[in-house]
Structures are given as structure tokens and as C-alpha cells.
Amino acid sequence: MLEARREQLFERLKEGIAVIRSADRRAYDEYPQDSDFRQDNNFYYLTGLETPESWLVMFSRSDGRDSVVLFVPERDPSQEIWTGSQVGPAEVKKLTGIKSVYPSSEFEKRFLRQLARGAQLAKYTHLYLLAGVGVPGVREIVDLGLETHRSISDLGEPLAELRQVKDSVELARLRRAAWITGEAQREAMRSVRPGMYEYELEALIEYVFRLRGAERVGFPSIVGSGPNSVILHHDKNRRRMEDGDLVVVDVGAEFEYYTADVTRTFPVNGKFSERQREVYELVLATQEAVLEAIRPGVTMRELRAIADRYLREHSSGLCGRSGCQKYFVHGLGHWLGMDVHDVGSYTSALEPGMVLTVEPGIYLAEEGLGVRIEDDVLVTEEGHEVLSKNAPRTVWEIEDLMGRAP
Ligand code: GLY
Question: Residues of the chain whose pLDDT is less than 50?
Fold first, then answer.
């Protein structure tokens, strides 16, 4: 799969050299490990490696004889008593099947100097780099590219095009991330009580994430109750939840570098008030109207128009004379993948394999009443599949799980 991804990237490149840098280890005083190390998404997408301070160099040729070179740090046996076995060039060769793997310390000698000398690399007229000249080494490459009159192109665009359509490995991971997140939402619904603090719910959710195999959260967990339910990214989570509050829980487990993003809104005491239910059902019906339209060929813009139209036509005095649509104050959704707001163009029409969130919301600040419902949706040949369907969504399903359904 990794080789197939690299091949697909080569297909999008002209005769040139693409350079992708890994993430760096964070420095800890006197502590040799970075236990929270997370690889750069593009580097991981193309190599599957979690080595820091590494480089992937891809040589794209018009005769099809493309090649790949990796530079990874050498093992440091004196540290392995602390870190456990490390992965160095020899292990990486075995793991990736890439034959040309060198220590990172040779990056300068083997690559930068050749780039500067020009002779051997002169035919590679394009130099593809990712934005981020602050990354160590990238400034030198840019300078060398300019000196040698290479045209410098953004590698982010072809990579984003590729990453926007998920392959089977990515989909398996996203499915798992969405399922774990749905399980955490269920546990939150089962456990919430008036008098609990938002951070207690956050802790419970993140406990379920880890319990089910997620490595980390894909973004800071949002638990906004009562007046905090109208704050779109409320992630302080310090408030005591009261009887009669709604709580907006917007969370995502990250599983093997892929994150879910699922929002549920539910009553802290287990039972929606009449007013809460009316607003909730409008948001739910808006989401349904959008979901029904999801199929290949449709654009994000068209989906947004469906949501706005639905809200305009069905508010019937719920949010005052001007209707509820003006209280839907954020985007309808975003691409989902290795980043919670994943890469990809927002003008492209949906294609099978794309994954997006659908998250209408209404926020009535004066009433301290916010409702957002968000699901993760895979575009399929026939239409779509909701990946987060294990999280209860209708009023009845939620009240039933919370033990307060009629
Ligand atoms: N659900 C968090 C975000 O979309 O930013």
C-alpha cells in the first residue's frame, strides 16, 4: 500500500525531486525519549515510519525509472536501555522494502552536495517541497534549488489530492476511530449526571478512547454544557453541569494516525425539555436532508445550500421571526483523515473514498442553548455510509440509552 501511494504520487510529478521531512523529536531535559512523538502526516503516509529527523527523497523520471531514498537516524545502542530497540537504516530497509536507506547524518553529503554540484541531478528540473521553510534543512534545499535554477513547486497540492481519497488501509483505520468515538459517546450519555464537571466527562471519554485502542485524541475534546454549549470550540471543560442543561460533546479518537470527529448533544438529566427537543429535531432533520444528498458528484457548496434551505424552510418561528438559519454560524463540514480538518480542496466534487463530516448546529446564546450533531461520512459508489452510526442520534435513542425514554 505504501509503495502504491508513492507510485500514485510519482504519477502526479514532473521530472523532478520531491523532498519530505519527518517530524522532529521534542527535546526533554535529561530525558532521551519523546514518548508523545507523532510523525508528520505526509511522511507517515508515504513511509509508515515513526522515525524522527528523517528525510524521504523521491526522484521522478520521465522514463518511469523513478526511485526513492530514505535517510533515517542511526541506532544509538547506548540509549536502548532507556528507549528499547530502535529502528535504524538496516531495520528500515527490511520494514519498507526500500533499498536505498542511509543514516540521516549522510543527508548533507549524499544529497545536498549533489544537488549543489548539479551534474548528476541536473536533469531533475523540478524541486518539490512542502511549505514550512522553518523545518531544519529545508531552507538550504530551497537556496540550493534557487542557485541551480530549478523550479520550486509545492508538494502539498499533489499530496492533498492523493490523501483526499482514502485507500482501504486508511478506511479501516477511520472506521475504527469512528467506532471508538461512538462508544465513548455512548459511555458519556450513560454516565452523565447533574453535578458532574465537564472535565469528568472528558476524562471518561478519553479513557474509553484509550481502552479501545486509540493512541490519542485527534483534537482537544470539547465538552460544553449550558452556556458553554454555544461556544463552538469550548475545550476548557471546567464547568459544573446542572439539571436542565444540554451538553455538546465534540470529540475524536485517533487510531493509527486517523482521527474521527463526532458530536452529540444530550440532556445532562437524561430528558430533553420541550424547547431543547424542538431545536434538536430541527438540527437532526437538517443533517438528514444533507446526508440524503451525499453521493459522488455533489459538492460541499451544494450540501451547504441544502442545509441552509432546510433551515430557512423549517424554522417556523423556532428562533424568532428571522428563522434559525442565521444561528448556523460555522461550516457544514470538513474533510477528515490524518488531520481532523484534513487536506483536500473544498471545490472538488465528492468521489468514492472521500470522508467528510456533516455537522449542522444552531447556537442560541441568549438561551444558553446550543445543539450540534456531527457524523463522519464515507462517500461510496452508491451514495454514502455513516461511519459513526454507533453513536445514538435521535431523541428517542438518546433518551432510551440514558434510561429516560417514555
Ligand atoms: N470538531 C472539532 C473541529 O472540527 O474543529
Answer: none
